[in-house]
Amino acid sequence: MFSCPRASSQPQVLRWLLARGVSLDADAAAVTIKGSDTTVVLSQRWAEVYRKSHPGTAIQISGGGSGVGIAALLNGTTQIANESRPLRPEEIAAFFKKFKASPHVYKICLGGILPAAEEPAVSRAFALPLTPAARAGL
């Protein structure tokens, strides 16, 4: 389970990243976001909302894992890397070596574990109050 900002009310995070954190070539056909499978749906929802106010912007989103995202950023095949874990020291060093700067990290989501059980007594023992947004996965 992930407690994340509502996709419909938080496209400003994507807007902010695109305005400040992403360098786009004039000839770029699309913005690409690669990385953590955990954040794919959230990124897709933000992109949908963003496109409503920026209809000419194509945004391509794919998962594959946190390591895929940082590798794609380092080899120039994505502008934004989604990570669901802290960057490893060797990834930070590789980023600094390539870009001569430290990576900008923006926390967009807080992850957690939700125990699931079929037995009603066990389920009641672990019952936690969940917001409607948490139940919906937003």
Biggest sheet record = 3 strands, parallel
CATH uppermost class = Alpha Beta
* Helix proportion range: 25-40%
How many DSSP H or I helices? Answer: 6
CATH topology group = D-Maltodextrin-Binding Protein, domain 2
Structural class, from helix and strand content? Answer: alpha/beta
Domain module tally? 1
The strand line-up of the biggest sheet is 3-2-4
Order of helices and strands: EHEHEHEHEHH
Name the overall outline: globular
Question: Mean pLDDT score, rounded?
Answer: 74
* N-end to C-end Cα span: 9 Å
Strand residue percentage: 5-15%
Cα radius of gyration in angstroms: 17 Å
Oligomer: single chain
Textual characterization of the structure:
- The protein is an alpha/beta fold and 138 residues long.
- Helices cover 40% and strands 13% of the residues.
- The chain has 6 helices and 5 strands; from the N terminus they run βαβαβαβαβαα.
- The strands form 2 sheets. A 3-stranded parallel β-sheet has the order 3-2-4.
- Strand 2 (31-35), helix 2 (40-53) and strand 3 form a beta-alpha-beta unit.
- The longest helix is centred in the middle third of the chain and has 14 residues, at 40-53.
- The protein is globular.
